[in-house]
Every structure is written in C-alpha cells, then in structure tokens.
Amino acid sequence: MPRLSEVIAALDNLWPAERAESWDAVGTVVGDPDQEVTRVLFAVDPVRETVDEAVKLDADLLVTHHPLYLRGTTTVAASTFKGRVVHTLIKNDIALHVAHTNADTADPGVSDALAGALDLRILRPLVPDPSDPAGRRGLGRVCEPDRPLTVRELAARAAERLPATAQGIRVAGDPDAPVRTVAVSGGSGDSLFDHVRAAGVDAFLTADLRHHPVSEARAQSSLALLDAAHWATEWPWCELAAAQLDEISDRHGWDLRVHVSRTVTDPWTAHAASATTTDTSGAPN
Ligand SMILES: [Zn+2]
C-alpha cells in the first residue's frame, strides 16, 4: 500500500499546485504523509455529507474540488462546521486533499470532463494557459457536438447526462437555434463572457449565471446560454480524476480502491415552477 505522501505526489503531478490561481487554496488540508492509503473517495465539496460518506466507506483519503478553507482561519473548533469536518477527518484517519483551479485548467481537467459527459468534441481551451506550449491547458473548452444539435437538444442532453439536481438546466435563447460550436466551463462561468463572445460560439454552458451578464450577452448577440447547477457541472471531473488515479494505481501496483461520491451537495434542494409560466419554449412572443 502506498503512503499518503506517494499518492499526493501522484495527484500533484496531475494538478500541480503552482498552476492554481493566486487566490486559491489547494493541496493537502489534513493528513499524515506517512499514513498508508487503501481507499480514496472523490467529491466536489468537503462538507459533512461527503466526509460522513468517507467515514462509512473506511476511506483513507478524501479528494475534493472545492477548498475547505479558502482563507486563513484562527480556529478548527468543532463548534464551527468546517472545524467539525477537520475533527471528523482526523478522528477517522482520513486525509483531505484539494485540487481546485489547478484541476480547472489541467489537461484533462474539469471542463474536459464536462464536455465528455455531454459527448462534445473538444477543439481548444476557451482561455488558453500561455505557459502551455501544446495549447491544451486553460479555462473552459470550445467544443463541437458529435452531431448537429439545437439549443433545446443540447439542454435536454445536459439535463439527462449531468447528475440530477433541483435546478436542472436554465436556458436563455432561441431553443431551435443550431449549436455548431459550444463553450463549456465547469463551475461559475460568467466572468468568461468576453472570451465566449470572442470565440464566436453558438452557445455557452456553465453555472451560476447572473441576471445582468446574461441580459447583456443576449442583447448583444444570439449567443444561447445554458445554466446548470454548479455542483453538476463539476461532478463529472470526479469520475475523470478517479479513473486517472485508478490508472496510476495500476501502474504502480498500489491496488487502491477508488470511489466517487454520488451525494448531491449542490446547496439548492428544491425547485418550484412558476404557476403561470410566461414562455417555456423561448419562442419570441
Ligand atoms: Zn466550483
């Protein structure tokens, strides 16, 4: 069985910490480098539900996309929910490791997994990382569908292929418009509008889109917008990352047991459709 330090070194090789944004907090949060690792759980969020899942699974390592602490803290008292997470992890000998923006821009990374879940062929990064001579790393991906799709069909495919959430998929735009090219970005994507416009794509699929950026984007072009739940857009990365670690484990003869959490940790838990829906078809009226 490998030690935690060996597994972390392999993960750091996939998602080097120095490629994370300067404001980010990635790397090992909890864990003894000398402890042995047999079972690993991948999840989007380091929250009570996924930590409890790691305990039940008898996991030795929980790898999450989102950081536990994005800023410094002066307490890990169990009276705080993050402190409780730290206590539960340490009491159960479970390490926590975070790969966040360093996994977003990786090749393959979060948006590759999102595109893969939707059967989209990747053309290039939406915001290329200038330090990658191969031009494959970067934020978001510009893709084309495996076959001609309309906006409605792309939304239906996202609703079907991404894990189910209360939100589902929101659409802004003509549902019958063709989607020949689409930009995707796992997680909050509305800071990427300028890049999406410059890419000249027909549609943009991401999460956490807000009123004003969407309103302005719609006023300026025919770009269709698809807004999925943040958690759902990043969850496919867990499966990709687990497969990558499985392959590393095989190569090293580690015999790791690698699992992916299916617990929905999107914070939105219910959706009530309006009593009088103005226009669900999106057709002009
Ligand atoms: Zn995220």
UniProtKB/TrEMBL annotation:
One of its GO terms (molecular function) is metal ion binding. It holds the Pfam family DUF34_NIF3. One of its GO terms (cellular component) is cytoplasm. Transmembrane segments: none annotated. It comes from the Bacteria. InterPro entries: DUF34/NIF3 (IPR002678), DUF34/NIF3_sf (IPR036069). Keywords: Metal-binding. The keyword Electron transport does not apply. A divalent metal cation binds at H65, H66, D104, H230, E234. Belongs to the GTP cyclohydrolase I type 2/NIF3 family. Homohexamer. This is GTP cyclohydrolase 1 type 2 homolog.
